[in-house]
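FIELD: query
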Amino acid sequence: MTGRGKRKSKSAQQELKAVNGNVKKVKQHEEADVPNELRQEVNRLYQLAMPEDFYHFWVFCEKLNPEDPSGALQPSLGLQLAGPYDILAGKHKSAKNSNPNYFLHWRHFYDPPEFQTILVGNAETQYHMGYYRDSPDALPVFIGANEAKKGCSLSQMGDNMFAAVRLFLSKRQKEKSNKKQDRSLCSLEEELTAAAEKLGYSLEQKSKEMKQRDKKVVTKTFHGAGIVVPVDENDVGYRELPETDASLKKICKVITEAPNDEARIQAFAPIQEMMTYIQFANDECDYGMGYELGIDLFCYGSHYFHKMVRQLLPMAYNLLKRNLFAEIIEAHLASRNQENVDQLSA
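FIELD: result
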């Protein structure tokens, strides 16, 4: 087996700090005009604290379209507010499904537990954006975008709703040639920029806080956004897998394309060996190793790996004290499909 390359230097590792239970410090923004009972309802149903930009963007969309804030971006950008925004819109009160699972509401096929959908776009590619947080006890660290029909890749779109939509709008402007649509996009861009500047939100694709997080990422994983785990001054918390991403993908490919069960069992041997290494790693508090392999196998997407993901990720999350993520991955694996992601209409 080949290694993943050099480990981070000790000085870099010393910058890795626990995120469990510590909501990251953020700039103080004026509180959005959203009733406390609605805020509490969102927190109760999702069991996650929402950042203030979530509520500020709702107010922004209310001004664009008072009758239907969720659809305010639909005519110009083809984007629909979704997920926890459905609670602000009151859609859960008239849902067809009387018992929705909010862990799975707009959770697409490749969405890891760290990801929470807040915007949906092109249905053909299942384009969607969502908050990404390293711990359920922390606020989001960035907004990611994924096209579930194309794969597991997560692209970073700034650290707040205004930045994410502004970046999406900029890409759309480059694609449009219709002058009427151009004027509409320019008008929306001006309103977005003015609102963000007034409220003090960065419009950068890579904010200062995101760059600081990059220093804490121990490995990129298959989705590319990376994972963060606490690593102490003695370098305890993470150890590398004995395979590079490329070689692990080759192993996964051989397993999924095996001509029969006997060949598939043989192809699983390298991963079974890694599972043994992970047991030793967990015993020595290097919880990031099992976390990494679990995320990679989840991102590969094949049902052949679901059993191992069930073994790896809930354990890793519980060891890292990210218990809510363990609940989310278990619910997702029990009902993982590429369609019917809207729990309110399921």
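FIELD: remark
The chain is about 45% helix and 10% strand.
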